Amino acid sequence: MFYEPRHRDTDKLPRSPINAIVAPRPIGWISSVSSQGDINLAPYSFFNVFCSNPPIVGFSSIGVKDTLSFIRDTMEFTYSMATADLIDQVHITSSQSPRGASEFTLAGLTTAPSRLVSAPRVAESPAALECRVTQVTRLIDAAAQECDAYLVLGEVIGVHIDDRLLENGRFVTGKAAPLSRCGYNDYATILSYVSRTPA
């Protein structure tokens, strides 16, 4: 099959398969706080690390949601690693909640204070990154038309790690069992992994 995304036959492909093709994708569990002190926690499946020196991570928000509004207020956010054992809580925090309602409370999660930013992190998560925003960019398409999507990039200025996941000075990703998005309503985690010595 070949198709052009702008002319997709929705009878044959009722939902775009692109997000399922670009998979698995790490989930950015992003917490933010407004200038009035309201706290938001939401998962973003358009998330990744884009630079190592300095470390820069980013996520894309489809539409202007509380996360984006709060980040524009304070220019800070926190990423907490979403793990397989927290899948139910991740799902709960993906639902639309009224502004001022705490997704932490709704999902039965504990807030843990950050050291360098105002947004708290998820205490139950084995790793978290405190980030200071470097860019917020509205995406444009190939015709230079603005999309209803916004890329948020932030420099990692603080890192929290559960010491149980460190071995010989390395973070053991497989032991953390990070949760990944595979498209539609499908998720994956690491059941096995292979380590190779660099050539």
UniProtKB/TrEMBL annotation:
MF annotations from Gene Ontology: FMN binding; oxidoreductase activity, acting on the CH-NH group of donors, NAD or NADP as acceptor
Any Pfam family hit: Flavin_Reduct
Coiled coil region boundaries: none
Cited SMART domains: Flavin_Reduct (SM00903)
Flavin reductase like domain sequence ranges: 20-173
Annotated protein name in UniProt: Flavin reductase family protein
Origin species: Borborobacter arsenicus
